[in-house]
Amino acid sequence: SLVGSICVVMPLSVGLCTAYRELYLGKNVNVVENTFKTGFANWKHNVGGMLLVSVYTFAWMLLLVVPGVIKAFAYALTPFILAERPELSANEAIELSMKMMDGHKMELFILFLIVFGLVILSVFTLFIGLLWIMPWMQVAMVKFYLYVKEDYESRATLVE
What we know:
Layout: H1 2-25, H2 31-41, H3 43-63, H4 65-74, H5 78-84, H6 90-100, H7 105-121, H8 130-159
Helix pairs in contact: 1-2, 1-3, 1-5, 1-8, 3-4, 3-5, 3-6, 5-6, 7-8
């Protein structure tokens, strides 16, 4: 079951990030096909990257919960980077995520608080509200990624 989760869920999480990014950008609207195609196209790379993120986050959580949560936010963009930049190693994708998230972790925390509040409210609809909340959350995460990526690239050009 754990091996199945690692072998299937981790690449699907990368694929889902990419599929929603493509949907948001209007490039390809077939979310299911994009999820599987992108997630399993570079399977070893995607599984390795997401497994490394899980191991790093777990290691930080062993220290204390707060540093673990902060690191989890720092690693949050890794699935997008793994899909968008397959030439990077898993560790390089994680490092790039940490650099990109520098100064943006609080914004992501606030976004997660909003989503958490909506999930709590969905209890009153017997969780039927999750049918709308989960896709909204994915699109919000895509929009957040594109915003942070643009900010990171603009900061990188200022340094050069």
